[in-house]
Design goal:
single chain, about 130 residues, alpha/beta, Rossmann fold, five-stranded parallel β-sheet, 6 helices, 5 strands
Length: about 130
Amino acid sequence: MRKIVLDTNCLLVTLPSQSPYHNVWQSFIDEKLALCVSNEILYEYEEIIAKKTSPIFADLVINTLLNKKNVVRVAPTWRFDIIKTDPDDNKFVDCAVCGGAECIVSNDNHFNILKETYFPYTTLYTLQEFCDTI
Protein backbone atom coordinates (compact mmCIF):
# COMPACT_ATOMS: atom_id res chain seq x y z
CA MET A 1 0.00 0.00 0.00
CA ARG A 2 1.35 3.41 -0.95
CA LYS A 3 2.00 5.79 1.96
CA ILE A 4 1.66 9.49 1.25
CA VAL A 5 1.39 12.84 2.98
CA LEU A 6 -1.35 15.15 1.68
CA ASP A 7 -1.07 18.84 2.32
CA THR A 8 -4.18 20.44 3.73
CA ASN A 9 -5.46 22.13 0.58
CA CYS A 10 -5.05 18.94 -1.41
CA LEU A 11 -6.97 16.97 1.20
CA LEU A 12 -9.70 19.58 1.15
CA VAL A 13 -10.24 19.36 -2.62
CA THR A 14 -10.30 15.54 -2.60
CA LEU A 15 -13.28 15.37 -0.24
CA PRO A 16 -16.25 16.39 -2.45
CA SER A 17 -17.56 13.47 -4.47
CA GLN A 18 -17.85 15.71 -7.56
CA SER A 19 -14.19 16.77 -7.33
CA PRO A 20 -11.92 15.57 -10.16
CA TYR A 21 -9.49 14.59 -7.37
CA HIS A 22 -11.97 12.59 -5.29
CA ASN A 23 -10.30 9.34 -6.34
CA VAL A 24 -7.49 10.13 -3.88
CA TRP A 25 -9.90 10.29 -0.93
CA GLN A 26 -11.79 7.26 -2.27
CA SER A 27 -8.54 5.29 -2.56
CA PHE A 28 -7.86 6.12 1.08
CA ILE A 29 -11.39 5.09 2.13
CA ASP A 30 -11.05 1.84 0.15
CA GLU A 31 -7.72 1.21 1.96
CA LYS A 32 -5.68 1.24 -1.24
CA LEU A 33 -3.70 4.20 0.05
CA ALA A 34 -2.24 5.05 3.45
CA LEU A 35 -2.05 8.59 4.79
CA CYS A 36 0.76 9.63 7.09
CA VAL A 37 -0.29 12.28 9.61
CA SER A 38 1.17 13.91 12.67
CA ASN A 39 -0.75 15.67 15.41
CA GLU A 40 0.26 19.02 13.90
CA ILE A 41 -1.15 17.99 10.53
CA LEU A 42 -4.40 16.73 12.06
CA TYR A 43 -4.88 20.02 13.90
CA GLU A 44 -4.33 21.97 10.69
CA TYR A 45 -6.68 19.69 8.75
CA GLU A 46 -9.40 20.23 11.34
CA GLU A 47 -8.91 23.99 11.49
CA ILE A 48 -8.94 24.56 7.74
CA ILE A 49 -11.74 22.12 6.93
CA ALA A 50 -13.91 23.71 9.64
CA LYS A 51 -13.23 27.19 8.21
CA LYS A 52 -13.87 26.17 4.58
CA THR A 53 -16.86 23.90 5.21
CA SER A 54 -18.25 23.43 8.73
CA PRO A 55 -17.06 22.23 12.14
CA ILE A 56 -19.35 19.20 11.87
CA PHE A 57 -17.85 18.15 8.54
CA ALA A 58 -14.35 18.72 9.92
CA ASP A 59 -15.17 16.42 12.85
CA LEU A 60 -16.38 13.73 10.45
CA VAL A 61 -13.18 13.89 8.40
CA ILE A 62 -10.92 13.87 11.47
CA ASN A 63 -12.84 10.98 13.04
CA THR A 64 -12.48 9.07 9.80
CA LEU A 65 -8.75 9.71 9.84
CA LEU A 66 -8.44 8.67 13.47
CA ASN A 67 -10.36 5.43 12.98
CA LYS A 68 -9.02 4.04 9.70
CA LYS A 69 -6.35 1.37 9.97
CA ASN A 70 -4.55 2.79 6.93
CA VAL A 71 -3.62 6.01 8.72
CA VAL A 72 -0.01 6.07 9.81
CA ARG A 73 0.36 8.21 12.92
CA VAL A 74 3.79 9.81 12.92
CA ALA A 75 5.53 11.59 15.78
CA PRO A 76 8.42 13.26 13.92
CA THR A 77 11.69 12.83 15.77
CA TRP A 78 13.52 15.42 13.71
CA ARG A 79 12.74 18.87 12.35
CA PHE A 80 14.44 19.30 8.99
CA ASP A 81 13.57 22.99 8.48
CA ILE A 82 13.80 22.75 4.70
CA ILE A 83 11.02 25.16 3.69
CA LYS A 84 12.25 28.61 4.64
CA THR A 85 9.61 30.61 2.74
CA ASP A 86 6.74 29.12 4.80
CA PRO A 87 8.12 27.30 7.84
CA ASP A 88 4.64 26.05 8.79
CA ASP A 89 4.82 23.69 5.79
CA ASN A 90 7.79 21.86 7.31
CA LYS A 91 5.43 19.70 9.37
CA PHE A 92 4.50 17.87 6.15
CA VAL A 93 8.14 17.25 5.24
CA ASP A 94 8.99 16.07 8.76
CA CYS A 95 6.01 13.70 8.73
CA ALA A 96 6.86 12.32 5.29
CA VAL A 97 10.51 11.66 6.12
CA CYS A 98 9.96 10.27 9.62
CA GLY A 99 6.93 8.24 8.51
CA GLY A 100 8.62 6.72 5.47
CA ALA A 101 6.08 8.16 3.05
CA GLU A 102 6.58 7.62 -0.65
CA CYS A 103 5.79 11.26 -1.41
CA ILE A 104 4.19 14.53 -0.45
CA VAL A 105 1.22 15.65 -2.53
CA SER A 106 0.93 19.42 -2.72
CA ASN A 107 0.14 22.20 -5.16
CA ASP A 108 1.88 24.73 -2.93
CA ASN A 109 4.94 26.29 -4.60
CA HIS A 110 6.73 26.48 -1.25
CA PHE A 111 7.31 22.74 -1.53
CA ASN A 112 9.28 23.11 -4.79
CA ILE A 113 12.48 23.40 -2.74
CA LEU A 114 12.16 19.63 -2.26
CA LYS A 115 13.09 19.18 -5.92
CA GLU A 116 16.50 20.68 -5.11
CA THR A 117 17.03 18.96 -1.76
CA TYR A 118 19.04 15.77 -1.68
CA PHE A 119 18.79 15.12 2.06
CA PRO A 120 16.35 14.22 3.23
CA TYR A 121 15.06 13.17 -0.15
CA THR A 122 11.31 13.43 -0.54
CA THR A 123 9.36 13.04 -3.76
CA LEU A 124 6.87 15.79 -4.51
CA TYR A 125 3.78 15.42 -6.68
CA THR A 126 1.14 17.94 -7.56
CA LEU A 127 -2.34 16.66 -6.91
CA GLN A 128 -2.92 16.13 -10.64
CA GLU A 129 0.37 14.27 -11.03
CA PHE A 130 -0.52 12.01 -8.13
CA CYS A 131 -4.02 11.38 -9.48
CA ASP A 132 -2.45 10.30 -12.73
CA THR A 133 -0.53 7.57 -10.86
CA ILE A 134 -3.54 5.97 -9.17
